Amino acid sequence: MSEVVQPVGFPERWRTAPLWTLFRRTSRKGHSAEPLLSVYRDFGVVPRGFTDDNWNRIPEDLSGYPLVRPGDLVLNKMKAWQGSLGVSTYRGIVSPAYFVFAPLRDDFSQSFLHYLLRSRPFIESYGRMSGGIRVDQWDLDPWAFSRLRLPLPPLPEQRAIADYLDRETAKIDTLAEKQTTMIERLRERRAAVVRGSVLGEVSANRAATPYWFGRIPSHWQTPRLSHHHHVVLGRTINASQALDTDISVPYVAAGSIQPEELILDAARTLTVPAADVAKYSLRRGDVVVVEGGAGYGRSHWLPTDIPGWAFQNHVVRVRPRDSTVDSRFTRLVIETCRQSGFFEANNRTATLPSLSSEVLGALRIPLPPLDEQRAIADYLDRGTAKIDTLIAKVQRHIELAKERRAALITAVVTGQIDVTTSTQSGDAA
């Protein structure tokens, strides 16, 4: 394999050097007492638990986890094409699935290299260098990675670039954090509106119950969810093909079920026996619920049929058995239960949080007469639509801020913006 040469476009006065002359792969093991670190696309190297979406089980034996020191370059070989790498400012240990590279010299800015290696041109090159059958199985070869040629401006300019990007990205990040806080408040407001309606809090004649929802209107019922609904767990993705008649179909995954939308990726498929196609079908009025992992208990109501699709084993489908329920109301009840903390408080799994179909089916729900269910669902369709629209607008602002941040980093680390000139001009002003 020949050396990988980065795309042209950097200032000619900048020298270049292959990555292997700056970093060398290392594997310091036997430090299991050190704190765990993770590598994220948006954050680089951070302590485990920095975000709340890492539910992977921690093994008892961490002796094989390599040590990371401040200044080390850490790479997630399976997700490098997404930008999951960075120069660490922390000391700790990482999964053996990560590559750790120790610096060989001190004549370069580690902060500059952090920005450079996470810039768009380099992230795109990781995708081209990675091998594998499908995207979620791509694997970046460490030898090829070490042959990357890095553009290196003079050390004072590297430091100026890193300082400039620290300042400017901090401004963008602060704005994004404020917008994220706004979304959290909007979701809290939405949850309060939904809860008040679903539990009939405006009713004057309410009675106490021993269940998670407490007091509800006295004429409402409190059946188990499975009494009026079929509760079915999805198909295992890697189930072996037992028959020649098995067919491959796209499926709704746990990650497809997001707070405000259902994201469908037709490229992902699983096999289903022809006789079970109806069992795993999806149609209007179904409620799909995340069964395990990050976001368990999150749900979505299907407004239309999804012909030809199935759902995986980390998703539970809730479908009305009879005409006594409006599944829009059912979905609102499940959402309210999740936000109440009931699912989390009653989770019995020590490692991977989950909400089994059995537990969901046994859930007691508040159930008003059908006409009241419909009235509540209609009211909330109108009331929450305004909040959802506002959330979508704020989310778009955050996406634009991230795009602007990535574009700025790329422009600066490739020399399209000369920060030494802009800094001097700013100082003079």
Description of the structure:
Keywords: DNA-binding, Endonuclease, Hydrolase, Nuclease, Restriction system. Belongs to the type-I restriction system S methylase family. One of its GO terms (molecular function) is endonuclease activity. The methyltransferase is composed of M and S polypeptides. This is Restriction endonuclease subunit S. The protein has 429 residues and is α+β, with helices and mostly antiparallel strands. Helix content is 34%, strand content 17%. The protein has ten helices and 19 strands. It has helices at residues 110-117, 120-129, 142-146, 155-198, 225-228, 327-340, 342-345, 357-361, 370-413, 419-428, and strands at residues 15-18, 23-26, 37-40, 44-47, 67-68, 73-76, 85-87, 92-93, 98-103, 149-152, 206-207, 216-217, 229-233, 247-252, 269-272, 287-290, 299-301, 310-311, 315-320. The strands form seven sheets. The chain has a four-stranded antiparallel beta sheet with strand order 2-9-6-7. Strand 16 and strand 17 form a beta hairpin. Helix 4 packs antiparallel against helix 9 (370-413). Residues 1-7 and 423-429 have low confidence and may be disordered.
Largest sheet, if any? 4 strands, antiparallel
Distance between the termini: 51 Å
Number of discrete helical segments: 10
Molecular shape: elongated
Radius of gyration: 26 Å
Order of strands in the sheet with most strands: 2-9-6-7
Question: Which structural class do you get from the secondary structure elements?
Answer: alpha+beta
Order of helices and strands: EEEEEEEEEHHHEHEEHEEEEEEEHHHHH
Q: What percentage of residues falls in helices of 4 or more residues?
A: 25-40%
What is the average of the pLDDT values? Answer: 87
What percentage of amino acids are in beta strands? 15-25%
Low-confidence segments, given as residue ranges, are 1-7, 423-429
Number of strands: 19
Domain Type I restriction modification DNA specificity: 218-395
Family: Belongs to the type-I restriction system S methylase family.
GO molecular function: endonuclease activity
Subunit structure: The methyltransferase is composed of M and S polypeptides.
